[in-house]
Write a structure and sequence with these properties.
Layout (H helix, E strand, L loop, with lengths): L7 E5 L4 H12 L3 E6 L2 H14 L3 E5 L5 H14 L5 E4 L14 H11 L1 H17 L1 E6 L3 H4 L6 H20 L4 E8 L2 E2 L2 H6 L3 H8 L8 E2 H12 L10 E4 L7
Bound molecules: nicotinamide-adenine-dinucleotide (NAD).
Nicotinamide-adenine-dinucleotide binds next to helix 1.
Length: about 250
Amino acid sequence: MKKFEGKVVLVTGAGHGIGKQIATQFAQQGANTVIVDYNTETGEKTAEEITTKYTKSLFVQADVSSPEAMMNVRQKVFEEFGRIDTLVLNAGVAFKNKVNNITFEEWNKTLSINLNGLFTTVKAFYNDFLTNQGSIVYISSGSALSGTGGGVSYPASKAGGEGLMRGLAKELGPKGVNVNAIAPRLIDTGEMMRVNYPTQEALDAVLEKIPVRRFGTVNDVANLAVFLADPDNSYIQGQTILLDGGRTIA
Ligand SMILES: NC(=O)c1ccc[n+]([C@@H]2O[C@H](COP(=O)([O-])OP(=O)(O)OC[C@H]3O[C@@H](n4cnc5c(N)ncnc54)[C@H](O)[C@@H]3O)[C@@H](O)[C@H]2O)c1
């Protein structure tokens, strides 16, 4: 029997990139998955691909920053599957402006998706976790620690998310719920890498800073997400695991 057979795993921002791979790997381990994304085209495509290859996958269009939308997601999940076991809080956006040129609008947008979006998701499913145990995995960023990678609003939102994660770990731990975070640094999700590092020289300069001399992959993040959600690893609680090929210690 596969590890997550009979379980239901919801991944926000699963239409693309890291979230898509996380949902795929849970499906490979037997879970039914819920793909939440505000992009209908990519979200539907991901759910179709997973359903065709592995297990039933439900797409629900939603903006994680909307409490109403996330309550609707909860309703759809229970109509389709009747349970929830794991939440992967992955949806996120990054703006790169520094304090001198960031607008309040951009600041608020980052926090409303990257921080409020975690709270709306957890709040929608909170009562279910009181009775069904399970796990919550938050995809943070090395930026929460290093302050790099995206101006000021991005690291602020990710550090806030880690505070929420630790508070939740204390609150839900006694109910049998595991709550942890993954803090990746540079993960190659395709086109964005080429935009941020357009030349081979630019890519080589970053690689020089990473002791394992390769970029992180969506598989690296998904492997760890599945590991942290596995009840066999339930003594890990309230932790942020830095996933950076050694870059930060270097
Ligand atoms: N790629 C990296 O190098 C890296 C490094 C550290 C942390 N992260 C974090 O990993 C997570 C995923 O990043 P990615 O690189 O795969 O991003 P991505 O842009 O490839 O995918 C993000 C997905 O989230 C969706 N999304 C964005 N805002 C949403 C909202 N308000 N509601 C619902 N869906 C929304 C997008 O439509 C997209 O499908 C993010 O939280 C990001 O901060 C990424």
